[in-house]
Every structure is written in C-alpha cells, then in structure tokens.
Design goal:
The protein is an alpha+beta fold. The protein is elongated.
Length: 486
C-alpha cells in the first residue's frame, strides 16, 4: 500500500515538472518570436544591405534613393570620355548621353531582401547579413542614340575636306595646282571604342581613327585633260547693250568650270540666278511664241553655243530643250534653251578625266571651248545633219478689233511663223571617210499665227467709207524672219 502511494506521488511530481517545462517553453518561444519580429519587421533597409557598395542600413526607401542619386548617379554623370585627335580633345560627359543606374528597381529588390517567407527563415537571412553583407548592383544604362549624335558632331569638327587640283586657263595656257588629301573620322571604330570605355563605367580616352578622303581631281589627271576636244562660236550684233551685257555676264559665270569624271553640268546653275543684282539686264526673249523684252535675254545663245561645243566633244547630253521658235545663231535642231526651272541644258562628263569649260567674248563672237583628255584619233571629225521632217502651217490669224479705226482698216501687227519638225543626225568621219551616221535628236518649233488689227468704226462721210489702209508694203515683208530671242 505504501508502495502505491509513493508511485502516485512520483507521477504527480512528474506531471507538475512537465507542466512547468511546457509553460516555460511557451513563454520562451513567444519571446523569441517577438525578438525575431523586432529584427525583421522594420521599415528601413537592413544593416549589411548595399547598392553598388553604398551602405543603406537604417535608411528609408526615400532616403536611400536620395543617397544613391547623390553618391552614384551624380558621380557617373560627371564622368568624361575624351576623344582625341592629335592636339585636339573633344569631351563627352556621361550625363550628356543620359548615363545612369537603374536605381528604382534595384532599391526595391534590395529592400525586399529578407521580407518574404517564414519568420525564422527571414530572421536567419537578416542576421546572417552581419557576417555576409549583401550588395545589389544597379543596372547601368545610357542613350546609345545620344552617343552616336555626339560622336557625329565631333566627326564634323575633325573632318578635313579634300581639295581638288584646280586648272585655270590664263593667257592661253593652263595653270594647275596640287591636290590635297582630306580626312574623316572612322565612325564605326571610334564609336565602338567609346562604347567600350563607357560600359567599363570609368572615364577614359579614345584616339580618333581617321580615314583618308581622296580628291576627285588630281594634278596628274588635270595635266592629261588639256586637249581641246570641242569648240564652237556664234556671232552677235554689237549695238544691243542689254543683250551683250547678258552675254558677257553669262560667259563669265560659266568660264573656268571644271567637271570631275561622272559629274553633271547644269546650265541654269552655271549661269547663276538671273537677276539684276547679279548683273543681268533686259533684252529680247521668246515668250509664248513672240519676241518680247525680258530679264537676261541672250543667255540661250550662250547655252546653244556651249551645247554645240559639247556635242562636238562627244560628251553625254543628259537634258536639252529646243526653243519654241527657231533662232538664227545656230542651225535648226542644234539650239538649246534655258527657262525658269523647266528648261535646262545638262551634260555629263562621261570620260575618265576632268573636263574644263571656257567661254568668252571676242569682238562680235561668243566662243565656247571644251578641254579634256582626247581619246579619239586626230583624223576623227564629227558633223551634224539637220533634216526638216515636216512643216507646220501657221494657225488662223489672230484678229483684234479696234473701234477707233474705221471699217476697212487692216494692219498686220505681228507676222507669225511656220513650225517645223527637225531630226538631227550625227555623222562621224575618219581619214575623210564616213564611218557612221546615226539619229541624234529631234526638235519641234511651234507655228504661230499672224496677228491682225481691223477697224470697226462706222464712218459718217463717203470719203471716210472709201478710206482703205495701205497694208501692201507691210504684207510683202511677211515670212519666217530672223529671230534673236533668248
């Protein structure tokens, strides 16, 4: 009996001991949970967290962002990459190409470290930071298009344009200068080297690599292009000041023009703006099939004269328009007109050497010469044959009634012209023998009507009614006439 009592006492004591241990464990675990929560449940960065090696422990997100902007982005923006060209240096600030670190996304990742998962796991992550700090690296970015723009701006500054050899004809002889080689930035090489420096996140220097730019015309080429390969002249009257001044100004503007191989000459561009300010004057021009005074009358004679020199030089004609009416200073089918922006003479230097244009006035002659490299035999001769394919009859006369003139009055105020369609053929001779004859161009000259004024006034006396206007002498002068228009 006594034994059973002892067993019971031992059991009660054991229960009491176990209960006390359980209560103690409960209070211990509760204290640990509270302690862990106090460590991990804070609204600042944990100690041991950094971004780009900038410690953020104890800072709020706003404070951390401000600190990183100051300590990281402001620093990177002030860094400089220098592009060097000999003694010249061109700096690009990282801030000018919008170089920066992606702080926002990196800060969020750094802040969330240790804030997900079970409390004990989070607590372990956070407390481990004491011995094993965690650094987050922000992504570095920059605007590549801005970098290209900056390098292009520098490229324009370092570029040295080449200089062609220039030939001038003075006192019947050519004076020829040396050419000069140019230089330009090797953009790809410089750009790739600059990218490598920038992406190293450090300031640095890049040597600008440059490539040579060869001139289009060299002295050697010019020295081979001094043969007269085409020449033509026309004549003019010396008593028309305005027209003659236009001939002088126009010749001066195109004289000395040099074309590199492949280059196209535009007469409109060569003559320059046809304005009073540029020296041009009023003279006869063809307007709507009639001869009228207009600015720069005469420049078409220069154009036609040069056209004939060019076709004799056998250069490629790119664009040519004949006049609306036939002109007297060149054969039918061999004229060339310029007008506004819708008629131009263009030809191309389709040789392998430069071509030089000479244009000048001598007495009452307008002379144009084309110099270049002669590839043809000295016995070669070029001629042009113009055939009138058809004649276009004048339209019905244009009648104007004049109420101030009596009935029966008739005056031809303008004699119209027959039109013509002309085909031009190029004929080539060698050693006096014809070796080819081929179609070259076509020209159409418009027909214009006679313009007549008639009277419509009723006369009160028989004498007035019988009055007739003597137009016989005027009408006997009717014909195609000679035009000196534009």
């Amino acid at each position: 009996m006594e034994k059973n009592k002892n067993i019971l006492k031992i059991a009660v004591i054991a229960v009491l001991v176990l209960s006390a241990a359980g209560v103690g464990a409960y209070f211990y675990n509760k204290a640990m949970v509270k302690k862990m929560a106090q460590v991990v449940d804070i609204d600042t960065f944990y100690d041991g967290i950094s971004v780009n090696n900038v410690p953020l422990g104890g800072l709020t997100q706003d404070e951390a962002k401000e600190k990183l902007s100051t300590d990281v982005n402001n620093v990177i923006r002030e860094q400089i990459i220098s592009l060097v060209d000999g003694e010249n240096t061109y700096d690009i600030k990282y801030g000018d190409i919008d170089a920066k670190y992606n702080i926002d996304d990196t800060l969020l990742a750094a802040y969330n470290y240790g804030r997900n998962g079970e409390l004990k796991d989070r607590y372990k992550q956070v407390t481990d930071l004491k011995d094993n700090p965690k650094d987050f690296e922000a992504q570095f970015t920059y605007n590549d298009e801005l970098l290209k723009t900056k390098i292009n701006e520098i490229s324009a500054q370092v570029k040295v344009e080449p200089e062609n050899s220039v030939m001038k004809r003075e006192n019947g002889a050519f004076v020829i200068s040396d050419e000069k080689i140019g230089y330009e930035m090797d953009f790809d090489s410089t750009y790739n080297a600059a990218k490598a420096v920038i992406e190293s996140l450090q300031p640095g220097t890049v040597e600008i690599k440059k490539n040579e730019i060869q001139p289009k015309i060299t002295r050697e080429e010019n020295e081979k292009a001094t043969s007269l390969i085409g020449t033509y002249y026309t004549t003019f009257s010396g008593n028309d000041y305005g027209r003659n001044e236009n001939l002088r100004v126009g010749c001066a503007n195109i004289n000395g023009t040099e074309l590199a191989p492949g280059e196209i000459f535009s007469m409109n561009e060569g003559l320059g703006p046809q304005t009073y300010e540029n020296g041009y004057r009023d003279a006869a021009v063809i307007v709507d099939g009639k001869i009228e005074d207009g600015l720069a009358g005469g420049v078409c004679q220069i154009t036609s004269t040069l056209y004939n020199a060019v076709i004799l030089a056998e250069l490629k004609i790119v664009e040519r328009s004949n006049h609306s009416l036939a002109v007297s200073y060149v054969p039918l089918g061999q004229d060339a007109a310029v007008a506004g922006d819708y008629k131009d003479l263009k030809f191309q230097n389709d040789t392998d050497y430069p071509v030089y244009i000479e244009a000048y006035i001598s007495g009452n002659k307008l002379i144009t010469n084309v110099y270049g490299y002669e590839i043809h035999s000295p016995s070669r001769e070029v001629k042009f044959e113009n055939i009138v394919d058809s004649v276009i009859q004048k339209p019905a006369e244009k009648v104007t009634e004049d109420p101030e003139k009596p009935k029966g009055y008739r005056e031809v105020t303008y004699y119209g012209k027959q039109g013509k369609k002309v085909s031009t053929y190029k004929i080539v001779y060698e050693n006096g023998q014809q070796i080819s004859r081929e179609y070259f161009s076509s020209s159409t000259y418009r027909a214009t009507p006679d313009e007549v004024t008639i009277g419509t006034k009723e006369e009160e006396t028989e004498q007035a009614n019988n009055t007739q206007t003597n137009t016989t002498q005027q009408e006997t002068a009717q014909g195609d006439g000679t035009l000196f228009g534009n």
